[in-house]
Amino acid sequence: MNVYIETYGCQMNQADSGIVAKVLKQSGYNLVQSQDDADIILINTCAVRDNAEKRIHNRVHDLQGAKKKKPHLKIGIIGCMAERLKDSLINDDKVDIVCGPDSYRKIDELVKQSGAIDVELSEQETYEDIVPIELESDGISAFISIMRGCENFCTYCVVPYTRGKERSRSPQSIIEQAKKLFEQGYRDITLLGQNVNSYKYNENGKDVRFAELLLRVADINPLLRVRFATSHPKDLSVELVEAIAAKHNICKYIHLPVQSGSDVMLSKMNRKYTSDEYLKKIELIREKIPDCAISTDVIAGFCGESLEDHEKTLEMFKKVKYDSAYMFKYSDRPGTVAHKRFEDNIDEEEKVRRLQQIIDLQRELSLQSNQKDVGKTFEVLVEGESKRDKTKLFGRTSQNKVVIFDKEDNKKGDYIDVKIDSCTSATLFGKKLL
Ligand code: SAH
Ligand code: SF4
Ligand code: F3S
Description:
By secondary structure, the chain is α/β, with parallel strands linked by helices. The chain has helices spanning 11-26, 50-69, 80-85, 88-92, 107-110, 159-163, 171-183, 210-218, 238-246, 263-268, 275-288, 307-320, 337-341, 348-373; strands spanning 2-7, 30-31, 40-45, 74-79, 97-99, 116-118, 141-145, 147-148, 167-168, 188-192, 200-203, 206-209, 225-229, 253-255, 293-300, 324-329, 377-385, 392-396, 402-406, 415-423, 428-432. Strand 5, helix 5 and strand 6 form a beta-alpha-beta unit. Helix 12 (307-320) packs parallel to helix 14 (348-373). The radius of gyration is 22 Å and the shape is globular. S-adenosyl-L-homocysteine (SAH) binds next to strand 15.
């Protein structure tokens, strides 16, 4: 039987698809690269915003045509949407398999049946004994899930309901996976969790926290770059910032989602920090790691957001001068506290307008950030050929910025010092330092 897996949503889903692939492969299934060759299509889904879900409903609808041509074809929804919508996916969307994020060990059983569903959440499952298959891999960058679930209950967010309780994986299993990846040629590893700062694992009677884990992974080899996502600002510790500063191969890049610049909104979102406290964390980073890039997530048009609240978000962006940002308009999610208690009262047009203002501002800030790099030299890890021009290579700096430069005799996985000579708001261009 041939299985095709496609992945939507966050990096955790990408890592999870690798686990699903491994479980199926061990049970004798064949993994294929094209849906045309598949007997089973599994779609790993995201439920974080309504448009993410709409896309999947449309995708499943389109696949009904393929099913007509190939009647034995089975379609499965796995991941966060499976967890949120459960049997309605079988009844309304006519899918054959529904498997939630904590049921992947049983995926081989589920795909044998029709109308099979398992959406039980677990308090322990971390899949730490399963070495995932690196799907869609460039052979250089890989993700390692270090924990699962989230218990922060930001009022707008569906993740605590789709991913369940927070649990951490043993440091030993994480380090083994990272070592294996390094031996296979991988050079850039991202440690993943919804809030890596609350990583905690009791090892021989002593708690290992995230800063220590990060240092241990970095110690595997100086040629292994280590990144992480995501840090909740409330838990970003001095120890963590000092750990990043201490090691050359821990990347100088922190993704620190702010969500809003207004204290009224932050409290309503249950983020557990004020804008001043957030700015103090930024000061701490700037003081200890002067060359650190900082990115963020932001939501425009949350319930009851006034124009003044929105202005405060723009001010926050100007103060921090983010290097990059992921920007969203608020999407009401059934089941969340915001859905139950607050009114989603900013109309669509106004949400779009506010979001666009943030996007325009960030484009300017990204350009300014890149312009500051012109004339400087960065160590770039080569990730592949530039898609637009085969005579060029692309790679990333420790700060997570993309750099394009002449190929010459260099290849994927090399570290090269590149002097930046020009930029756009999205990319740096440079020449190899001789
Ligand atoms: N755990 C991470 C974020 C996970 S979800 C953190 O706490 O930072 C990724 C991003 O999606 C969030 O940071 C938030 O900006 C956005 N998001 C979550 N729920 C949303 C919603 N209902 N509407 C719009 N954006 C949302
Ligand atoms: Fe969602 Fe908040 Fe958890 Fe992030 S920390 S996943 S935004 S509840
Ligand atoms: Fe989406 Fe689930 Fe990730 S809701 S953002 S795929 S944890």
